[in-house]
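Take one protein record:
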Amino acid sequence: MGELLRIWIKPARRAAMASAIAAHAETGRGLAGNADQGGRRQVTLLDADRWRDAESELGEAVDPTARRANLLTRGVDYRECTGRVLRVGAVHIRLLGETRPCGRMDEARPGLRAALQPDWRAGAYGEVLDDGTLRVGDPVEWSDPPPPAEEA
């Protein structure tokens, strides 16, 4: 079982990432207050071990906010996870693919984009399957999808 280490909200495109101790996840939307709402890329996740691999390649520590992900976790490997469901606390997230690093990475630290290319180091993205609150320290593990919501 893994752990949710950090939460960040991107309040606007190209804005600085805001650290949070908790965030509300909304079904089919993403994290409340985050600039990326709806669509396929509602939440982005970064594995602390893959991040450390990128730092080793660069030869120095880099603040993980440079990656611009929403969730930093430890203990869950995102490599080849497309289609799997992750439970973070009480929230289920279906992972839809690998997050490919963009040119913004080199703005934060020259060479970061290349260091994030291999081995899913830039993380994964997905869609929120149910409402709930995420909190730093929450357990993170692979899961079955949540049961369908009952219609009123």
User: Anything to note?
Assistant: The first strand starts at residue 2 and ends at 9.
